[in-house]
Amino acid sequence: MTRALRTVISPGRYVQGRGAIHQLGDYLKPLGASPLIIADDLVWGLVGRDVEASLKAAGLPVARERSRGIPSAGEVDRLVAAIEAAGADVAVAVGGGSTIDAVKAAGHLAGIRWANCPTVASTDAPCSALSVIYTESGEFEEYRFFPRNPDLVLVDSQVVADAPVATLVAGVGDALATWLEARATAQSNSPTMAGGLPTLTGTALAQLSWDVLWENALPAIDAVKDHTVTPAVEKVIEANTLLSGLGFESGGLAAAHAIHNGLTAVPHTHGVAHGQKVNIGSLTQLVLEGAPSGDIRDFITFTTRVGLPTTLTEVGLSADDEAALKKVADAATAEGETIHSMPFDVRSEDVVSALKSIERLAVRIRSEASLPTPVPHRAH
Ligand SMILES: [Zn+2]
User: Fold this and answer.
1) The predicted structure's pLDDT at residue 120
2) Alcohol dehydrogenase iron-type/glycerol dehydrogenase GldA domain: from which residue to which, for each copy (predicted)?
3) Is pTM, for the whole model, over 0.85?
4) For residue 258, how far is its CA from the centre of ligand 1 (angstroms)?
């Protein structure tokens, strides 16, 4: 693949709306005759009956394999064996980002098609042609890239609204980063996760995701607290899942996700959701950029209102944790990390300083805006 070419990639079809899950079978039928559904017990308890009914109505057999959480290399290999044992021709992830990442990687290795039915809008994993693989203990291990995106991404908005509101909040954190990172990637004209230079399309979708969230995230979160689907909820689900998915993949990742990956390298942050850690990455990226203080203030106040962390304290760290912060920063600036897509050089010590600085900065801005003081996260 030449680095001089621009490219944009996307799933074969994206479907979203209330009750969409009842049509899962109809949309799967053109993809294969023997689907294997992969879902954990919790998700299966919530939507298993609807998935089963929809497959049966489409004349498809129902087979299910349990998902076991963290998308590790071992979990992927276990799912490949399950796909082969079932003789499946399409793997269908039903659940959150962990199940989806494991199924994409397993579907690719097994040489069959794959589809995603996210039951939460907590990450932008569903649409992309890559998986993030973690160690069994949850540390970032590698990105795996595939030659194609999922054939289908189907999201039932009511199912997403029925999930805990914290999942939608985390998804907003993941999706806000998309524009900050795509903007940096466009400035430096660096390669994106799609294997080429950014297109106007990828960059514009990232920006649209940001605009939609600033307008709709707070009312959508209010609605989801009551498990209600409103137009704002539909817009936020689309921003978190499709716009951010296309935007990060074809617009490019930069410092925010590299810092997220760095944060997974220390046990302090375990139990903090992907989108929450990404929000710390976004704020740290703004500091590294020397962004206008008004922009930084707006980002801190808005994301605090959304319910995202803006301090080290809230992700289990403190400005005094020298060794841990160095470990985070070393991992974030490792060779091949997307932080090197920033329009300037970023060294480990720059990241340590920026991370340390956000503590006092966010505490001051939150206090000036009469927003809650940080509650410490305890790793579990
Ligand atoms: Zn992400």
Assistant:
1) 98
2) 11-156
3) yes
4) 10
Token pair of 369 as six digits: 């805006």
Residues assigned a catalytic role: 174, 257, 260, 274
**CATH code 3.40.50.1970 region(s) in the chain:** 14-161
Q: How far is the CA of 52 from the centre of ligand 1 (A)?
A: 30
CATH of domain 14-161: 3.40.50.1970
Q: From the CA of 175, how far away is ligand 1's center (Å)?
A: 7
Question: What are the tens digits of pLDDT across the range 130-187?
Answer: 999 999 999 999 999 999 999 999 999 999 999 999 999 999 999 999 999 999 999 9
Ligand 1 geometric centre to CA of 53 (Å): 32
Residue 3's pLDDT band, with cuts at 50, 70 and 90, is low
- AA identity, residue 25: G
- Strands 113-118, 90-95: parallel, antiparallel or unpaired by DSSP? parallel
Q: Give residue 274 CA to ligand 1 midpoint distance, Å.
A: 7
Name the pairing type of β-strands 14-17 and 152-156: parallel
The helix/strand/coil state of 292 is coil
Confidence of residue 378 (pLDDT cuts 50, 70, 90): confident
CB 75 within 8 A of CB 138: no
Q: Which CATH number fits domain 164-368: 1.10.155.10, 3.40.630.30, 1.20.1090.10, 1.10.287.130?
A: 1.20.1090.10
**Phi-psi label, residue 191: left if phi above 0, alpha if psi -120 to 50, beta otherwise:** beta
Which candidate, 59, 35, 64, 36, places its Cα nearest to that of 49?
64
Predicted confidence (pLDDT) per residue in 315-345, tens digit = 999 999 999 999 999 999 999 999 999 999 9
Distance 14 CA to ligand 1 centre (A): 19
Numbers of helices and strands, H then E, in the chain: 14, 8
Identify the residue whose tokens are 């796909």: 83
